[in-house]
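user: can you give me the structure for this one chain? C-alpha cells are fine.
assistant: on it. calling the predictor now.
[tool input]
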Amino acid sequence: MLKEETKKEIALFRFSLIAPIVSETYREASKMEYFRNVANKEHMLPTGQLVKFSPLTIKKWYKKYTFKGKVIRSVFTSS
C-alpha cells in the first residue's frame, strides 16, 4: 500500500501533466492533440519509475479533476 505522501506526490505529478489544459495554456490545436503529445513521451513517476501513458489515461485524469470539483487529490484515485 502506498504511503499518503506518495499518493500526494503522484496526484501532483498527474496534475502537472494536465495543468496546461486546466490553465488553457497548451499550444496544440485541441485538447486531444495535447493528450497525444504528452502520451508520446516517457515520464518519471515520483517513485522513480519511467512510464508512458495513453492519451485516454491523461484525458481521464483531466475529466476526473474537472468533474470532482477541481481537487488535485481526485487525480490520484484509480476509479
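assistant: here you go. Residues 32 and 55 are 7 Å apart (CA to CA). The chain has three helices and two strands.
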